[in-house]
Amino acid sequence: MRLHMLLPKVNVDQITPPTKCVDPTCQGRKFRFHQPVRKALRDTVYHEVQAHRYQCLKCQRTFRVYPQGVSVAQTSLRVKGLAVMLYLLGLSYGATSLALEAIGVSMCKSRVYDAVQEAASRVPGLKREQVFKGLRTPALGADLTSVKCKGQWLPLGISVDAISGLVLTVDSLSAQDIEALKQWIEPIAQSVGAQVLVSDDADGFKTVADEVGVQHQVCKAHVKRNTEDLIERNLPLVAKDADSSLQAIGVPAEQAVADLKRLGKLVKSRQREQASELEAMHRRYLEATPPKEGEHQSLAYRLRLLFLDRWNLWHRLTRYRSWKGPKGEKLDGTNNACERAIGWWIKERYRTMRGYKVPENALRVSRFLAWCGNFLNQGGADLASLIQ
Q1: Residue 64 CB neighbours (<10 A)
Q2: Binning pLDDT at 50, 70 and 90, where does residue 38 land?
């Protein structure tokens, strides 16, 4: 991926005269040039610049006006932007400080931290109350992840446009139960006008989709992988009817083996009309009884539940076969857009760290990375708009 990040510029010749007084209680609009003053600066090019002092003719207060890319701080906006960019590329705060020192700019890691957090706090959107750029999409993807913060796992929810892959929001969640998921997803779905929710195979998302009133597509990759694992684990036991529970309900072991192998083929083909086969398989094991308190599930009962679950899941698993958006949009049946967003904009940055110390900072940095990722996918990220 080619990165194109726009950093703030320093133009020592561009000093824009003031248009209002810096005193918020003063309404002055007329100013007199008072004097030029020198200002020491930490920058990759300039070590000193000239600022202008103006006097407000109404309140007589004097104040400084700085060139483009320079503020009251000792460090130029260009260096702050460079520090933020190096951090986003994977360097730690300390390593960023050392990298800047190598090119002749002194900036301690605490100031690097301040620059990153200040820029991250200005990220527009990417929060539940303000979906990214007011974007609307008929297909909303959602997934959960977590990062360690002061030794505790902090749950994060990420929502994306399941068609384009753009990140819509990054939010911290108080919990991962159904009520918390609903409070997170419902306002986002309403804001973007979602018709379908794309998620992994977690039961919570199924309940939330039904309660919010949107269609649901379960990631085919998750279901395929989980089903194959279950088949591989149970097939040797079924082949020898390990607990004789199949014999007890009159199902030959050969039939159960054939059913499991057929299930493996069905989750690969995923045709909507194949639901009737799953129903027939489930009904074959209806006589298997649930375990009593303190007992383990019998092999036959586990098969009964497995076929029931896949039968009930089938319309969610095959939704992408027939779903089309208002402009002919289609789904690929996976939740890969969320997986990529989590991997690129949350886990890849987190991988080089020992964890966050402040929950708010973990959320800000994740939003910041996702915001940059959105704009990089569109051609470039303008860091200059966030560095002040």
Answers
A1: 17
A2: very high
